[in-house]
Protein 1
Amino acid sequence: MKNIIETKKLCKSFSNGGVQQHVLKNIDLEIYEGDFTIIMGASGAGKSTLLYSLSGMDKPTLGSVSFNGTEITKMNTDELAIFRRGNCGFVFQQIYLVESMSIFDNLLAAGLLVNKDKKALAEKAGKLLCAVNIPENLWDKFPTQISGGEAQRVGIARALINDPSLVFADEPTGALNSHTGKAVLDVLTDFNNRGQSIVMVTHDIVSARRGNRVLYVKDGEIAGECILGKYVSGDKDRHRKLSDFLVSMGW
C-alpha cells in the first residue's frame, strides 16, 4: 500500500514550569492511502498532539514527518499554511463554521483559498452538501440556524472542498448525541468507501469501529495496533476483536 505519511523518530516536548514533558516519544509510523485510521488512548496520552503533528498543525520537537514524500517538518509557518490548504482537511469537535456566513458560503470561502473559479466551486459545494445529506433549503441558513449534527456534516463537506489527500478528524462526534453522531460517522464511512483517506482521534469504541486500523497511544508511544478491515454494520466479531484489543492495551 502507498503511504501518505511517514514519521521517523517523532518527538514532541513541552516545558511545564521548567520541567520538560515528553508528549510524543520516537514515533515511527506510516499512514496509508485509502485507510480509515483511528487513534485511541487515555486522556493525556498524546492522541491529539500526534494528529496535529502529522497534519502540520504543530511542529515536532525532534524527528520528521513526510507527507506524500515531502518532509513538512522543514517548512516554515507560511509554507505549512499553504501546504495544509491544498493537502489536508480538518474536522474538529468544535466545528468552527463562520457564523456570519451562510452554510454555502462557508464552503466557498474555504475553497477560494485554493481555487479561484467560483462557478466550479459553487457546483462542487452543492454536490458536497448533497453528499453529506444537507438539503438545499438549508444552504442559505447560518450555522446557528441548524442543528449540531447538521453543522458537523457541513464541517465535513468544508474539509473536503479542496480534495485533500487526507482528512484529519479530532473527536468529531464528541459533542453530539448518539443519533446525530451516527449520522456523522455514516458520512465519514461513506467517503472512506469512496477512497478518501481519514485519520480520526476518538475515545469512543462505537466511533473506533468505523476504522479499518486502530492505533493505541500510551505514554506518548504507539503501544499497539489492531487491523479490523473495512467496516461492515452489525459485525459482532469486529466489536469483539476491538474490545479485546483495547482491554489488552489497558483501556
Protein 2
Amino acid sequence: MGDLMPERCGWCGTDPLYMAYHDEEWGVPQHDDQRLFEKLILEGAQAGLSWITILRKREAYRKAFHAFDPVSVAAMTDAELEAVLRDPGIVRNRLKVFSARRNALAFLAVQREFGTFDAFLWSFVGGVPKVNQPRTLSEVPAVTPEAEALSKALKKRGFTFVGPTIMYAYMQSMGLVDDHLAGCWRKAP
C-alpha cells in the first residue's frame, strides 16, 4: 500500500503544494474569522491568475499584510501599501493591494454588525455546507445563486474583488460548498 496515492480531484495535479492544499484546506469548513479574512484577500489577489501562483506567494502575503489581522490591515497607511507594492513576493497590482485595506475596513464593519464575519458568511448556506455530487470537473459550476447573493451583499458593504465567480471559489475553499469529485478521498460521505 506504500506506493498508492489517494484519489484526488483532478484540478490539483501533482504539485505537492497544491495536493497539500487540496488535502488539508480546500472544502474543509472554516469558521475562524482571521482565516476567513486571509482567504478573502487571497481570492481577490488571485483574480485573473492561477490559484497555485497565489499559494506559492501566500507566505509573502502573510508577511506583507500582518498575518492577515484585519485590524492591522485596516490601519495600513498609503505609504505601507506602497511599500507592499514593491514586494516581489506578491502580485504587485495596485488595485488588489489597496483593496486589502478597503476590504479589511468592510470586514470589521460586518463583524460589528453580525458579531462575526463567520455568522454573516455562513448565513448564505443556512449554516451548513452544501454538498454537491459532481463526478467530473465539468459538472462543477463557476458560480451559483448563493455566490451571486454573497457577492452582491459584500459589494453593497464596500468590498472589492468579490465578484460572483471569486465568491464561489471562496465558498468552495472555505468549505461552505463541498465540490470534491465523486471518488475523491476528501468527499464528504
Protein 3
Amino acid sequence: MAQERKPIWPQLLMVAATIIWGSSFLIMKQAVDGIPVFYLLAVRFSLGAGLLAVVFAPRWKRMDRATLRGGCVLGLLMEAAYIFQTYGLDGLGPLQGTTPGKNAFFTGIYCVLVPFFSWLLFHKRPDLYNVTAAVLCVAGVGLVSLGGETSLVGGDVLTMLGGVMFALHILAVPRYAEKSDVILLTILQFATMALTSWVGVLFTGETPTQALPPADLLRIGYLAVFATALALLFQNIGQARTPPAAAAVLLSLEAPFGVLFSVLFGNERPTPAMYAGFAVIFFAIILSETKLSFLPWRKKVAKGT
C-alpha cells in the first residue's frame, strides 16, 4: 500500500512567514531610527496580541493552565531571542555591535542547533540528511549575509545567544502545541512579549519624545499586523505540524528574502556570493524536505531492493 502523502500547507505557511519577515527588515530599520527599541516591541506585540485576541475570541473557552504556561514559555523564549538579537546589532555596554549581515548569519545558527538540541533534550537523533541540510543552510546564510566580514566582536556573541533562544523556541512550539490550541498559544506568546517589553520600557526609560509622524505609525501598523500577528501565527501553526529540524531550515529563508527585498527596494546590490548562497539554501531545503527520495537509487532503498 502506498504511503499517504503528507500535506505541504504547514511548510507553505512557514515560507509565507519568512517572506513577510524579509519584507519587514527595511521597515524595521526605518522604524528604529525614530522609535526606541523596547517601545517599538511593546507597541508591536500589544497590537498583535489584541488583534488576534479579538479575531479568535471564541477560542478563549479552550483556555487552560497548560496553554497559559506554554504561551508564557514561548513568549519568554522569543523575547529573549529578540533582545539578544537587537543588542547584538546595537551593542551593549563595552560590547561592540555587529553588522546587519553578521547579525543575520549568527542568528541563523539555530539551523544547526535544532537537530542536536532535539537529540539532547528529547532523545530524537538527527539523521544524516538533517545534519547535512542544517550545515548547508548555515553556509548558505553566510554566503548571503557576511559579504567577506570575518572579524568577531562582542555583538556577535550576543547574536549567537539569540540564535540559541530561537532554536529553543522552534523546539518548544510543537511540544506545547500537542496538547494546546496553537492560536491561543500564539496570542499568549504575544501578550508575554508585550508585557516584558513594557517592563523594558520602564527599565530603560526610553519613550518617544514627541508625537510619532504618520510614516512611523504606518510602519508600526505593518509590523504589528503582518510581521507579528500574521507571520508569527503562520510560523507557529506550521511548526506545530513540521519536524523541528525541517522547520529550522525552512525558517532560514528569512535571511535571503531579507536580502532580496533590500536589493529590490533598498540600496543592496547582488553579488555572486549571494546567488551561490541562495542556491545552497534552496538545496538544503530540498534535502531536508525530501531526503532525496525522488532519486532512483533512493527509491530502490526505500523499497528495500
Protein 4
Amino acid sequence: MNHYSRRVCVICAPEMIDRPNEFTSLSDFQEGRLLLIDKPLEWTSFDVVAKMRGLLRRALGVKKIKVGHAGTLDPLATGLLIVCTGKMTKRIQYLMEEGKTYTGTIQLGATTPSYDLETEVDAVFSTSHLSEKILLEAAQSFEPGYMQHPPVFSARKVGGRPAYLAARKGQDVKLDPRYVLIERFTLSSVDLPSVGFEVECSKGTYIRSLAFDLGKKVDSGAHLTALRRTASGVYHVKDAMTIEAFEARLNAL
C-alpha cells in the first residue's frame, strides 16, 4: 500500500480499517459506519449517497441522517465509493486524502472535449507510428508526477461554479494545472488503438486528463473509454457491496 494510505489511515483510527461494512443494528448507522460500495455505471456519487440516505431514513424512521462519500467518481466510472454515515462523516476529509488505484481502457487516435465518452469525438489522429514500446515508455514518463490540467468538463470550480456548466454551454473555460503524483502507471494490455491500464495516484488526479496527456505524449490523441476504481487507501473494491446488497442487508435487520 502506498505511503499516503498508511499515513492517512493511522489518522483515521484503527476501527475504520478493521471493520468496514460491519453493522448489526439500525442504530449503528447513526453512531457511525464506514461502508464500501461498488458504484454502478451511470450513477453519480451523489446518486449513491442519496439512495442510501433514503433507505436509511425509511429504515430508521427519521427525517435526517448524515451520509457522505469520500471521493467523487464520474458517472461513467464504476468501482469503490467509500460512504460514511452518522459520526463517521467527520472522518471524510481524512479518507479523501488517501491514494487511489484505478484500472480502465484508453482509446488512442481520437480525442473528445470531455476526455472520455461523455462527449463526441472532436479530432482524429494517426496511430500508425505507435508501438507497445513507445506506449510503455510514455506511460512511465508520467511517474512520479506532473503538472496536470483538469478536464473542462469537470466539477472543478470556476468563479464558484462547476466548470462543466460553462463547458456544456460552449463557453471558454480555463483551469489552472495542479501537480499530481503518479506512483505507478502501467499498461496491462496493448491492442491498438486500445490499451488497458492500471494507475496508482494521489487524490485530485483526473484519469481522463492522464489519458488525454498520454495521447499528446505519443504524438496522437486519446480518450478514456472505461474506468474502475479498485482501491482507495487500504480499502479495495473486492470488499465492496452493491447498492442492492446493502438494501437487502438493511431490510434484514
